[in-house]
Amino acid sequence: MLTELFERAAFRAGWRAARAGDPFHENPLRGPLACFARQWGRGWAAANDVLEAA
């Protein structure tokens, strides 16, 4: 379950980055996945807010 949520959020982060024109090969530690990781680190409520808003 948690893995599935992370995969969905990571996919959405990458999809948004692609629409914004970010290169596919960018360093994931500095790109959209890093933004997701910061939100994830703030706790379950913040992660749910991000998933519901997407």
Describe it:
The protein has one domain. The model has no long low-confidence stretch (mean pLDDT 67). The protein is built from three helices and no strands. It has helices at 2-20, 32-41, 44-53.
Index terms:
54 residues; mainly alpha; 0% strand; globular
Give the number of domains.
Answer: 1
Model regions low in confidence, pLDDT < 50 over at least 5 residues: none
Helix/strand/pairing category: mainly alpha
Number of helices: 3
Topology:
Layout: H1 2-20, H2 32-41, H3 44-53
Helix pairs in contact: 1-2, 2-3
Short account of what is shown:
This protein is mainly alpha-helical and 54 residues long.
